[in-house]
Amino acid sequence: MSEETTAAGRAFQVDLRGVVDLLARHLYSGPRVYVRELLQNGVDAITARRAHDEGAPGSVRLRPGDDGSLEVTDTGIGLTPAQAEELLATVGRSSKRDLDLGLGREEFLGQFGIGLLSAFMVADQIELVSRSAVDEQAPPVRWVGYSDGRYDLSVLPHDADVAVGSTVRLRPRRDAEHWLGADMVVALAQEFGALLPVEVSVEVPLPDGSGTAWRRVSEPVLPWRGEYADEAARDAALTAYCERTLGFTPLAHLDLDVPLAGLSGVAFVLPTAVPPGAASRHRVYLKRMLLGAHVDDLLPEWAFFVRCVVDTTVLRPTASREQLYTDDALLATQEVLAGQVRAWAVATLSSSSAVSRKVVATHHLALRSLALVDDEVLDLVAQVLPFETTDGASTLADVRGEEGEVLFTSRVEDFRRVAPVARAHGMTVVNGGYVYDSELLARLARRPGWRARELSAGDIAQVLTPLEPHRELEVLDQLRAAQAVVQPLDCELVARSFEPQHVPAVLLQDRDGEYAREVRQVVAADDDLWGGVLSGLAGDAPAPARRLVVNDANPTVRRLFAADPADPVLAAGVRSLYVTAVLLAGEPLRAREAALMNDAMSVLLEAGLAGEQVRDETQEDV
Ligand SMILES: Nc1ncnc2c1ncn2[C@@H]1O[C@H](COP(=O)(O)OP(=O)(O)OP(=O)(O)O)[C@@H](O)[C@H]1O
């Protein structure tokens, strides 16, 4: 074996173009992040300088040049020639790492030692001129890196016109000039650096063309930490901040605070309905530098109705610095944040405030749909969302509190049908006929601690009192005649006495055939005479699906049952009772039922007019 092939301890060669390509295409989401990396180096350098000199100036200034270049100047700690040689010439070398822990030091944004390379996504040459703030004896240094992997380093004369700190100068790549243009630089500096605690400014041309000015893009204080005259002023400032930054006027906002993660911020409630699956897109700042505007693993999916802006000092970034690194700290933080949003939602939505009404009106459908797949949302929905009940609008938790179990109908028509009767008998029935609600109630029935079931014909039958035997006999013929009227309509007619008296009849739907079973049970249990009467009503054939229960306590019905069974007025009266009950149930009238109504009306009118005539004639006689 030759010596060459066995030689040990040789250094790897790095193909810089390959590394830059890797960064640009696979690590960072695009070239725009180069501004973030430069800002970050400036801020870190200021932090390092202030560790020695608390009162040191703190500014990062970006100056787009007429020749398409960009200069970024910071008042940070600077570099000595030796440091520049050590730190800038080696990919992955960083002054910000804790050598014992192998992690980035808490006070710095950078840690990986690759940030400066990102500038090669837009530049083919990076120049850094620097003077150390710490070592006053050290001369200034000029380092120039080229995208082909070479670099030059020169020590400048001690008295050269170089201020303490560093200036990075980028010469644009041929196809990347637009990334260094003034408008783009302002937009990117604002995007990434708006909350940085140092002064970040961009030199922009004045509109009248008379020169240039520095435009500050960073806010000295986090908007939610600022001091305001009162709560209203704070609300207004946060609303304006949300409009500016997230592009919508929030319905409400809530403060977020997780001291263990060094996290604070605000969750803004969206003003328009969004599908629950939509990504959450929270804006996350890490040590006040934008990590990402579309970070979605901050809150669980059920919190889709808020967008957050948060700043954290403890959570860690992934190497791309665009997402949060999933570790125990992030998981614990997510839990605390979810708890805060939930507590707010429960407190706000269970109040009757204007905010609560607006939030419910905007997001209730999405909450309901999410409740079908997420038990946490289901619990929230059961606790705070209003449902239509026979007792007015009420939460499911309240219904359970009052009744012990939740009875519901799964169709709006069913609810309308039974509501007056249930109400009169003090039964609370939930209308589960609206979109998602019956599935939601069925799912709730399987949750521990909940009893919920669909209202059956039997529940209503319980409150409909059968007629006294003598009364049943009294109206037997009329009942038979009435039964014959509705039979062709696939409907059965029975007489009961029930509250409220003003309801002449209700139409019960018995899709599961429960009624038929119930009648048969009653027939089997009754003595011969009454069993015979009832079985006449139930019939041997399978019972029709619908049942018109006429109310013998209602004065109109009683008058009708006083008529001769053969009198056409009886048949007409029964028809109109039937049609009224169909209408009360909220069902549309079919052509046949409309015709029935017309027939009934003309018979009743004729009878009425004939009665008038008789009366008139009698009066004339008198
Ligand atoms: N403006 C600056 N002033 C002083 N030192 C700088 C400056 N820019 C870069 N450096 C030095 O160069 C090193 C490498 O910088 P680079 O941006 O590549 O990585 P980093 O900031 O350490 O980490 P990251 O990859 O996470 O950004 C830094 O650790 C720092 O010591």
Could you tell me the CATH topology label of the largest domain.
Heat Shock Protein 90
In whole angstroms, the N-to-C terminal distance is 144 Å
Query: Tally the helices: what do you get?
Result: 20
Tell me the number of strands: 24
Top CATH class of the largest domain: Alpha Beta
Q: Into which percent range does the helicity of residues fall?
A: 40-55%
Mean pLDDT: 86
Beta-strand portion reads 15-25%
Low-confidence stretches: 1-5, 527-539
The unique ligands bound to this protein are: adenosine-5'-triphosphate
- In CATH, the homologous superfamily of the largest domain goes by the name Histidine kinase-like ATPase, C-terminal domain
Strand order, largest beta sheet: 7-6-5-8-2-1-9-10
Q: In the residues, how many domains can be counted?
A: 4
Radius of gyration: 40 Å
Q: Judging from the principal axes of the Cα atoms, what is the shape?
A: rod-shaped
Largest sheet: 8 strands, mixed
Question: Structural class given helices, strands, pairing?
Answer: alpha+beta
Give the second-level CATH assignment, the architecture of the largest domain. 2-Layer Sandwich
Organism: Cellulomonas gelida
GO molecular function, one term: ATP binding
Keywords: ATP-binding, Chaperone, Nucleotide-binding
Family: Belongs to the heat shock protein 90 family.
